[in-house]
Design brief:
Elements (H helix, E strand, L loop, with lengths): L2 H10 L4 E5 L2 E9 L10 E9 L6 E4 L20 E3 L7 E2 L5 H19 L6
Antiparallel strand pairs: 1-2, 2-3, 3-4, 4-5, 5-6
Length: 123
């Protein structure tokens, strides 16, 4: 699959929400956006795995910048791509390369969390 087709696949998930396991949902936002330094790939996205009534366990998004390890003296990326490993994680930089890689990384983390928490899954 070429990068354009991968991007169209991600964009086709915009607004999709489904139950990944009993009591847990996966939600997608993926929209075209004018490229800018904070979103150089021209996407506004949020991929979330969470309990139906609760905070996200895993979230990949580019809604805001995140602090870099090392504090204010370490220059971080301009792009806002990042991911949250837990509900309390303030976020860590994510190196967005392709839409397909984003989806693969998201699903890998969803499976990790489901396995760690004993949530039945077929992923």
């Amino acid at each position: 699959m070429n990068e354009d087709a991968e991007l169209e696949l991600l964009l086709s998930l915009d607004g999709v929400s489904f139950e990944a396991a009993q009591g847990y949902v996966v939600e997608f936002i993926a929209r075209r956006f004018n490229p800018m330094p904070e979103r150089p790939h021209g996407l506004n996205y949020s991929l979330v795995f969470r309990p139906k009534e609760g905070e996200p366990f895993v979230r990949f998004d580019n809604a805001h910048a995140v602090d870099r390890p090392g504090g204010k003296f370490v220059k971080g990326p301009v792009a806002h791509d990042h991911w949250h490993r837990t509900a309390d994680d303030p976020g860590r930089p994510y190196n967005f390369t392709t839409a397909a890689q984003l989806l693969e990384d998201f699903w890998r983390e969803v499976k990790r969390v489901m396995d760690e928490r004993g949530i039945p899954n077929d992923l």
